[in-house]
Design brief:
The structure is a homodimer. The first copy, chain A, is of the alpha/beta class. Chain A is 28% helix and 16% strand. Chain A contains 9 helices and 14 strands. The first copy, chain A, has helices at residues 10-14, 28-31, 41-47, 86-101, 127-140, 166-170, 192-195, 215-224, 267-286; strands at residues 2-4, 21-23, 36-39, 56-59, 77-79, 119-123, 143-147, 159-161, 175-178, 203-206, 229-232, 237-238, 241-242, 254-256. In chain A, the strands form 3 sheets. In chain A, strands 8-7-6-9-10-11-14 form a 7-stranded parallel beta sheet. In chain A, helix 4 (86-101) packs across helix 5. The two termini of chain A are 28 Å apart. Chains A and B meet through helix 4, helix 5 and helix 9 of A and helix 4, helix 5 and helix 9 of B.
Chain lengths: 301, 301
């Protein structure tokens, strides 16, 4: 039995019509019988404890850092929806870079920064990072340096480097894009010591998870380095809810959006991403070998 | 005798060292002897009347709409600096498009618009228009349709069409970029009748001259069509000075910058553009056939 706690569209539902599906229920009696559970992290967090026969979880979100790993037996396979938002989020990253570089809507603007031919460090070589690299390289002739454990599209990177090279890369980048999932190894990855290695006129953008960057440290860094610029779509959580009221908004060298790069970007982006998750769950159920995005629990627990 | 009313850098000056040059003077006695006059439009407007032996004018600006054509004898050749700001201005156009599409810094943001694969109409096929097309096509996979009398890089356009096709093109575009010089035929080109032909969710951006769009008409259009979005770097002139205090700023579906796309973008952009103008003047003086950007007076007078 498949249970989706989120109401699937007719099209998505039809992709699962050879299986037994309960569509759009988070009733305890339905969830308790599920072998495969589909949902957004907040709903999964509330319901996963009741699923006594669970074999697999498929999230609609790209990130799984909000899942209650301690309530999920180790035998349960968890599949994320990584890659489903790549185009939307990568365009969003470029929007923040350009908005900051050209001081859009900013009175008394400082000098603009050119983008063409600049060196861009991209932290995260998954779908989003690879798509950012593609736009930057093909559109603006940037030199793209990726930092990742695994690259989805290494051909978009002029250099594809392992995480050990991070400090070296940060010091040589004009633009730094953070497109990392949040897990044990990425939490506070960009803290004071690494920010201080960056170039004076660096443009930093975060479209992954806020907590990969230390909030106090980036704030101090921007105050102390007025020529550096920072933009983010993601904000630091307080009691598991994103707190958009950051003091960063008071700084002239900051630009932000309210976590709108992915699913909340538009109904079309959300629907397409849900479909991709459903197709992945279907591939899992069909045992056809095309299932993707198996989460490594060790990264989170 | 060459007179530059603007003080050239050492490097630019050295490009003219085989000629007789007065560098950085707008004294009447110097200007009056000039056979070739180099300068920005505002300075040329004040000084050109004193140049009694003038053969040629080279502007540092791309646009020449501010020149006092009625004071310049027809025998005087006028060279613009078209193309010198192409990279900076085209990046700026993309910045405005993305900033609007993703509602950067906008509270209570509406749905984001995707850019990938969209149809972009580009009015003006010169250096700026061609460079916008290149970024949009190579970076975002947009379908690029240019409207121009002559295309500098037709290879960047999926379709390169004459001005007569304008109405047809505007109706099929998701994004409209205006990169036109201001002259008799472009003044008020986008007025109510053409704006009303556009798509409901059109994103319009102007990096040419404000007066190619009718200010009252675009204002009414944006009020009446909240899903349409407009961004501009250029503002309508009042007594020949750009008036940045437009009521457009009060609209949520507007984004702006304070005429910063070209020379004021940064000292580097300005210096590079001045060098290109000096090289062009040098080519004119050397009669080597590589002189560019001869202005057609008929377009303006």
């Amino acid at each position: 039995l498949i249970v989706s706690t989120y109401r699937l569209s007719e099209k998505s539902e039809s992709l699962l019509n050879e299986f037994n599906l309960i569509n759009g229920s988070d009733k305890k009696e339905d969830v308790s019988k599920a072998t495969v559970l589909l949902g957004w992290p907040d709903s999964l967090r509330r319901n996963v404890q009741f699923a006594e026969h669970l074999e697999a979880i498929q999230t609609f979100s790209a990130g799984v850092d909000d899942l209650p790993f301690h309530q999920i037996p180790e035998s349960v396979k968890i599949f994320s929806n990584a890659g489903a938002y790549s185009q939307s989020v990568s365009e969003h990253a470029i929007a923040l870079i350009l908005s900051l570089s050209k001081s859009v809507n900013r009175k008394d603007p400082p000098a603009s920064y050119g983008v063409a031919g600049k060196t861009m460090a991209i932290l995260g070589g998954g779908g989003i990072g690879s798509s950012v690299a593609k736009i930057a390289r093909n559109g603006f002739g940037c030199r793209t340096i990726g930092i990742s454990r695994s690259f989805q599209h290494p051909e978009n990177f002029d250099e594809a480097l392992p995480v050990e090279k991070l400090d070296y890369v940060l010091g040589s980048a004009d633009i730094v894009v953070c497109a990392l999932p949040l897990n044990k190894s990425t939490h506070n990855l960009l803290a004071r010591n690494r920010l201080e290695k960056m170039r004076k006129k660096v443009v930093i953008v975060n479209v992954g998870r806020a907590e990969a960057i230390n909030e106090e440290d980036i704030y101090s860094f921007l105050v102390g380095n007025p020529e550096a610029r920072f933009g983010t779509d993601v904000f630091w959580r307080v009691n598991s809810a994103e707190n958009f009221a950051s003091k960063l908004w008071t700084l002239p060298n900051f630009a932000g959006t309210y976590h709108r790069a992915g699913a909340p970007a538009s109904p079309e982006v959300k629907e397409e991403a849900v479909e991709l998750a459903v197709i992945n769950a279907r591939n899992y159920l069909l045992h056809n070998g095309r299932v993707r995005n198996l989460v490594k629990r060790d990264d989170y627990v």
